[in-house]
Structures are given as C-alpha cells and as structure tokens.
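Figure 6 in text form: structure in, sequence out.
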C-alpha cells in the first residue's frame, strides 16, 4: 500500500494515501523502508519521495520523530535540482523534537 500511495500517478494512490494517513504510526516502518529504497536513486524516485514526504507531513509529529535520520539522509543525497530537498523539509518541520527545528533552521 505504501508503494501505491507514494506513486501519485498510480490509480488508487489517493485512497491508499488516505488509508495510510488514517492508520498513522503503524505505517512508519514501511514508510522508512520505502524512503531508504527510494533514496538509492533520488533522481529516479523523486515523485515517490514527494508522495512519502507528503504522507509523513500529514501523520502526527511524535510518530515521525524516529525518521529524522532517514530524512536528513535524503537532504544529504538530494537531487541535482534540489527537488527532493524541498519536499523532505515538509515532514522535518513537523517533527516535534528540537533536532527537527535545529535541522530546518540550519538547512533553510
């Protein structure tokens, strides 16, 4: 379901996105796995990363705090045109820990 939700051009992505948003925290391990996979080639999977970052932005901040290292990795890898960086900052700004705020202040 995570792969369907992350592909915003996929039929049913809106439904999968809404279901994962409703499920919330239990989806985090699957989202983490998908982010790690997609970060291997950010240029190829930039739209999928955008979809996952949008999903994470919608999930409550305490649930996504453990993903901060993976999101920072996406910023480090990024794409040539910083497309991934822009979307990665969305969920980072939602992270409730002081680390998230420091990261956004430093990067922005």
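Output sequence:
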């Amino acid at each position: 379901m995570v792969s369907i939700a992350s592909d915003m051009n996929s039929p049913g992505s809106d439904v999968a996105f809404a279901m994962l948003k409703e499920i919330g925290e239990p989806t985090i391990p699957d989202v983490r796995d998908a982010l790690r996979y997609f970060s291997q080639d950010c240029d190829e999977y930039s739209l999928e990363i955008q979809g996952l970052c949008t999903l994470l932005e919608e999930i409550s901040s305490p649930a996504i705090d453990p993903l901060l290292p993976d999101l920072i990795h996406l910023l480090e890898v990024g794409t040539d045109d910083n497309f991934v960086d822009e979307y990665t900052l969305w969920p980072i700004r939602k992270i409730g820990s002081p680390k998230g705020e420091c990261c956004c202040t430093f990067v922005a």
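Caption detail: The mean pLDDT is 83.
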